[in-house]
Specification:
Keywords: Flavoprotein, Oxidoreductase
Protein name: Xanthine dehydrogenase FAD-binding subunit XdhB
Strand content: 15-25%
Shape: globular
CATH topology of the largest domain: Uridine Diphospho-n-acetylenolpyruvylglucosamine Reductase, domain 3
Number of domains: 3
Organism: Clostridium oceanicum
InterPro entries: CO_DH_flav_C, CO_DH_flav_C_dom_sf, Diverse_Substr_Oxidored, FAD-bd_PCMH, FAD-bd_PCMH-like_sf, FAD-bd_PCMH_sub1, FAD-bd_PCMH_sub2, Mopterin_DH_FAD-bd
Helix content: 25-40%
Pfam families: CO_deh_flav_C, FAD_binding_5
Order of helices and strands: EHEHEEEHHHHHHEEHEEEEEEEHHH
Largest sheet: 5 strands, antiparallel
Strand order of the largest sheet: 4-5-10-6-7
CATH architecture of the largest domain: 2-Layer Sandwich
Length: 294
């Protein structure tokens, strides 16, 4: 059923990076929910796998000294939506996590694997884009920080080298403090299906205006997208129903939706406009409930 040549199981990060440094034919497997499906469907074949499942410390969630939140790449989606730090500070990511597959998938699938898969339908991507997330990548000889918007290069293609591992995701304090958001996934079977459209909205409000506004889309182009035109024009707008509908319409200017087997371009654009409006409504309501509209 699965065309696997070998599975290496390093116990430490150093051991894993050493293996990757001397062999260029290894495919990293984290939770396995993407790789094993591709193997079964014969999208991938004859693989030499390196499992990083048993490496200690890659599933930690912590607040750093500067207030940044660091999420280990091997953290599962179940661990994310149950985590106190996430729910208190970046609940939008918890919303995305709980929309990912069913309970069995969430218990296995990791946020790092979801990112490195490079799929625009990944539920974590729009939310992490809205949070201006940064990715820590490490090899045996080097470590680098990459902005998530620079990580996605095309459908299923990401900016990671053969000898590197994604270690963690970092969200700076300025990118989550006093901000409230909503992730909405539209799918044929809700959480049990991949996203037909994913919209993440993050707002900061002051004096009944949008002090900060971020809108990110999944499945609206070859990579996840930030709606920069809508963000720029929407920032400092009065928070009214009319303006939120206008911002939803402006989000279309950044979309690169196309006709596909699962939905037409027109249908996807209708989703973008409507879901952005709904996410704005819910995000403003969350801010209001926390006493952040004055």
């Amino acid at each position: 059923m699965y065309d696997i040549n070998e599975i290496l199981e390093p116990k430490t990060l150093e051991e894993a990076l050493e293996m990757l440094s001397v062999r260029d034919n290894l495919t990293v497997i984290a939770g396995g929910t993407d790789v094993l499906v591709k193997l079964r469907e014969e999208i991938l074949n004859s693989l030499n796998l390196i499992s990083i499942r048993n490496i200690d410390g890659l599933n930690k969630i912590k607040i750093l000294k500067d207030g940044s939140i660091e999420i280990g790449a091997m953290t599962t989606f179940a661990e994310i939506f149950r985590n106190e730090i996430i729910n208190k500070n970046i609940s939008i990511l918890s919303q995305a996590a709980v929309s990912m597959g069913g309970p069995q998938i969430r218990n296995m699938a990791t946020i790092g694997g979801n990112i490195c898969n490079g799929a625009v339908s990944g539920d974590s991507a729009p939310t992490l884009f809205s949070l201006n997330s940064k990715l820590k990548l490490k090899s045996k000889t080097d470590e680098r920080i990459v902005k998530i918007k620079d990580f996605y290069k095309g459908p299923g293609e990401v900016n990671i080298k053969k000898d590197e591992l994604l270690i963690s995701i970092i969200i700076e304090k300025k990118d989550y403090e006093n901000k409230y958001g909503t992730y909405i996934k539209f799918a044929n079977r809700n959480a049990m299906d991949i996203a037909l459209m994913g919209v993440a909205v993050l707002v900061e409000v002051k004096n009944k205006k949008f002090k900060d506004l971020r809108i990110a889309l999944g499945v609206a182009g070859p990579t996840p997208i930030r709606c920069e035109i809508a963000e720029s024009k929407g920032k400092h707008m009065d928070i009214t129903d009319e303006n939120m509908k206008l911002i939803g319409n402006l989000a279309l200017k950044s979309s690169k939706a196309i006709d596909f087997w699962n939905a037409s371009k027109e249908f996807k654009e209708n989703l973008i406009e409507e879901l952005t409006y709904r996410a704005l409504e819910e995000s403003v309501e969350r801010a209001e409930n926390h006493g952040n509209i004055k």
